[in-house]
Structure formats: structure tokens, C-alpha cells
């Protein structure tokens, strides 16, 4: 018991000593804002934060629409395989809702693009 504890302790200490050069210090850190044009300065106010979040909401909404479209297709196929008319109807409803959601997202994106082009104000 004591021998195995000593073995694990020595191994742990040797690992820490050997890896101390791998630890990052603040002296070696890179100022990301200067090097990579960090968008943090654009998030300083509430408008910049809303613009950053809203731009990503289109991506999230698109993924959700895709998942619902797959779910509706699966429900439709499952209903057709088991002759369950209710499942086919549910599948059609989900597919129709996914297509409607996609059209709403698509039209809202292009309305925002049109407003940006007409007013020369960058929204996203």
C-alpha cells in the first residue's frame, strides 16, 4: 500500500515538473484584440450585442427547421409503413410547419438585407 502510494506520488511530481514549461503564462499571451481584430469592441453596447446574437439566431433557426423537417419525414414514412393515417397526417403537418418556418426565416432575412441596402445601416 505504501509502495503504490509512493509510486503514484513520485509519478505525479515528475509529471508536474516535466510539464511546467507547457503552462501558459500571461507574459507569453497574445493580445487577440490587436492581432485578430476581435469583435469584443463591437459588443460594448447593447446594440452590438443584439446584432451579434440575432445574426446567430438565423443559424440556430435553420438547424431547428432542418430537424423538424427530418422529424416530419420520419413520422410520414413511419405512418406509411404501418398504415397509420394519423401518423401520416402528423408528418404532413410537421413538414408543412417546417417549410412555413423556413419561408418566414428566409423572408425576414431578405427584408433585413433590403433595409440595410436602402438605409446604408448595418444591422447584422
Polypeptide structure, described:
The longest helix is centred in the middle third of the chain and has 36 residues, at 46-81. Helix 3 (46-81) runs antiparallel to helix 4 (85-119). The relative contact order is 0.07. With 124 residues, this protein is mainly alpha-helical. It has four helices and no strands. The protein starts with a helix and ends in a 5-residue tail after the last helix. It is flat and about 70 Å long. The protein has a domain at 48-117.
What characteristics describe this protein?
124 residues; single chain; flat; mainly alpha
**Mean pLDDT metric:** 79
* Overall body shape: flat
Low-confidence regions:
none
Radius of gyration: 27 Å
Sketch the major β-sheet: none
Strand content: under 5%
Q: How many distinct helices?
A: 4
Helix content: over 70%
Count every beta strand, where a strand is a DSSP E run of 2 or more residues. Answer: 0
Distance between the ends: 63 Å
> What would you call the structural class?
mainly alpha
SSE order in H/E notation?
A: HHHH
What topology emerges from the helices and strands here?
Blueprint (H helix, E strand, L loop, with lengths): L1 H17 L13 H4 L10 H36 L3 H35 L5
Helix pairs in contact: 3-4
Q: In brief, what are we looking at here?
A:
The chain is mostly helical and 124 residues long.
